[in-house]
Amino acid sequence: MHKLVQDIINMKKEGKKISVITSYDYTLASLCDKAGIDVLLVGDSAGMVMLGYENTIPVTMEQMCMFTEAVSRARHNSLLVADLPFMSYQVSIEDAIRNAGKLIKAGADAVKLEGGSVMAETISAIVDIGIPVMGHIGLQPQTTMLSQGYKVQGKTKDTAMRLIQDAKELEEAGVFSIALEMVSHEVAEIISDTINIPTIGIGSGVGCNGQVLVVQDLLGMYDKIKPKFAKRYMNLSEDIVKSLENYRNDVQAGVFPSEENWFSMEKKEFDKLREEIGS
Ligand code: KIV
To answer: Tens digits of per-residue pLDDT, 230-247?
Structure first.
């Protein structure tokens, strides 16, 4: 049986840190699940790292459902959370519930949406029908990008107070955890100590109850943006390009494929064939 929302909540109570990684496709999701990552997040960052958009704004429900279905076929152990994309939950509560339901039908165990207290009513409505929700405050790529660009959040007393209040209201609305994106580490720690549910940080310091990274950043596969918080555990893109160059060279030199890579006819069948075609 894979992890449940309650298992993730319990991890905070037991003082265990929570590992979260984004996943969008079957092959990498299988490896993340095998590695024992607690939560696979089908983030709308898929728009950038999988589809090549400049930001997450163009991502659609159809795309998120497709990624979620692929990841759900791969996971056996982790909890699976999927992002509601831009404008799939902001227009009406009915829309939000319908779209949250689509992600659950696609295989997610819970959904994530961006926004502080302004989203509390929507979150309550989704939670009330039985769909677990992860909140997301601090830098909210779907909208912060429109006004401020990538900026650390909670650097002044007033913005810090706003974030703390948002976190409390999201907890009251029923979220089971909150992602804190690019929040100053002092504020992230205060929020983590103030609320009972787990915080999952990205660029928000070690005081959070868990951490999330975009899998392509961790593996060193996405070079377009290199945020300081995205620790690279390897430089996979270098190895991939090297391997592809080796393949291209082998093809050009006629050394690939070789006998171990091809299939043969029975000799007697081949002889009959040669006789038939007169060669
Ligand atoms: O879309 C995403 O990948 C996210 C995480 C970075 C938190 O929302």
So the answer is: 999 999 999 999 999 999
Which pair of structure tokens corresponds to residue 211?
């951490």
pLDDT, one tens digit per residue, over 13-48 is 999 999 999 999 999 999 999 999 999 999 999 999
Per-residue pLDDT, 181: 98
Q: Note whether 181 and 129 are same-domain residues.
A: yes
Number of domains in the chain: 2
Please, are residues 68 and 41 in contact by the beta-carbon 8 Å criterion?
no
Both 254 and 137 in one domain: the answer is: no
Is there a single domain that holds both residue 120 and residue 243?
A: no
Q: How far apart are CA 161 and CA 253, in angstroms?
A: 65
pLDDT digits (tens, 9 = 90+) for 104-143: 999 999 999 999 999 999 999 999 999 999 999 999 999 9
Token match 């939000």: residue? 96
β partners of residue 80: 40
Tell the residue nearest (CA) to atom 5 of ligand 1.
Answer: 43
Q: What is the distance in A from the centroid of ligand 1 to the CA of 172?
A: 23
What interhelical angle do 93-105 and 120-128 show, nearest 10?
Answer: 50
**Residues with Cβ within 6 A of ligand 1?**
22, 43-45, 83, 136, 179, 181, 202, 212, 214
Range of the domain at 271: 239-277
Residues serving a catalytic function are 181
Neighbouring CB atoms inside 10 A of 110's CB total 25
